[in-house]
TrEMBL record:
Binding site for a divalent metal cation 2: H142, H165
Protein's recorded name: Deoxyribonuclease TATDN3
Keyword Zinc on entry: no
Keywords: Hydrolase, Metal-binding
Binding positions for a divalent metal cation 1 per the UniProt entry: H7, H9, E102, D212
Species in which this protein is naturally found: Eublepharis macularius
Gene Ontology molecular function: hydrolase activity, acting on ester bonds; metal ion binding
Function: Exhibits 3'-exonuclease activities and apurinic/apyrimidinic (AP) endonuclease (in vitro). Show preferential AP endonuclease activity on double-stranded DNA substrates and 3'- exonuclease activity on single-stranded DNA.
Family: Belongs to the metallo-dependent hydrolases superfamily. TatD-type hydrolase family.
Superkingdom of origin organism: Eukaryota
Length: 268
């Protein structure tokens, strides 16, 4: 049985030297599919090339993240200009996309300290929710320090197929997302984080697996890879007192519900 990594960053510089080895090790570990997300338009080309080189295994999501990196390596809150630069490229590749992502809100004070910055993040997210609806695509969503505002905005805008990745909000807030039919993906860092309560509260039917590679691995400050997805599955099984097989089976079925295009490749 295999697992689906519903959220990873394989266009990241950390994978530049050995991406083919990383993909091969993921296949050997029985990872069925990799859902690769973008943070900014500069990554779009690399993501599309990866999915073209590995059809049926690497699936591309294009979108603009709420935190953007400047040429000097500084991080700042997203602007509508960032999105405007990305939209023509998303349009160009729209027929090949599995989802729009990574999109969302990030109200971490060092990135969004003013109401104006938060409002601009909301506008960028609203435009990408509308785009996903027009293209009939799911959303792959970031919500750091903004769990409730993100879920509220998604609901207000009528977003339907939604994955909230590495959710750091309260379980009670997550349950609002569950009621709306949203899914939550759990990374390998669950083995060392304080999100055990979240996994306890979430029904298995609302959980997917992710790695967020190269971040959120089982070991802090060690590059994470898609092959590590089974750390998350094992921990979920332990917390819920069920078998690893059940976790992998149900989370894979959840991924197929969330990303219908996967069915064309994984259900043959």
């Amino acid at each position: 049985m295999g697992a689906v990594d519903c959220h990873c960053h394989l266009a990241a510089p950390e994978f530049q030297e050995d991406i083919e080895d990383v993909l091969e090790e993921a296949k050997q570990a029985k990872v069925l599919a990799l859902v690769v997300v973008a943070e900014h338009s500069g990554e779009f080309g690399r993501i599309m090339q990866l999915s073209e080189r590995h059809p049926g295994f690497v699936f591309s999501c294009l979108g603009v993240h709420p935190v953007q990196r400047t040429p000097t390596g500084q991080e700042r809150s997203v602007t509508l200009k960032d999105l405007d630069e990305a939209l023509p490229l998303i349009e160009l590749h729209k027929d090949c996309l599995l989802a729009i992502g990574e999109v969302g809100l990030d109200f971490t004070p060092r990135f969004a300290s003013t109401d104006e910055q938060k409002e601009e993040q909301r506008r960028v997210l609203i435009k990408q929710i509308q785009l996903a609806k027009e293209l009939h695509l799911p959303l792959n969503v970031h919500s750091r320090s903004a769990g409730r505002p993100t879920i509220n905005l998604l609901k207000e805008q009528g977003a339907e197929r939604v994955l909230l990745h590495a959710f750091d909000g309260k379980p009670s807030v997550a349950m609002e997302g569950v009621k709306a039919g949203y899914f939550f993906s759990i990374p390998p860092s669950i083995t060392r984080s304080e999100q055990e309560k979240l996994v306890k509260h979430l029904p298995l039917e609302s959980i997917c697996l992710e790695t967020d590679s190269p971040a959120l691995g089982p070991e802090k400050q060690v590059r994470n890879e898609p092959k590590n997805i089974f750390f998350a599955a094992e921990y979920i099984a332990k917390i819920k007192g069920i078998s690893l097989e059940e976790v992998i089976d149900v989370t894979t079925q959840n991924a197929l519900k969330l990303f219908p295009k996967l069915k064309n490749f994984l259900c043959k």
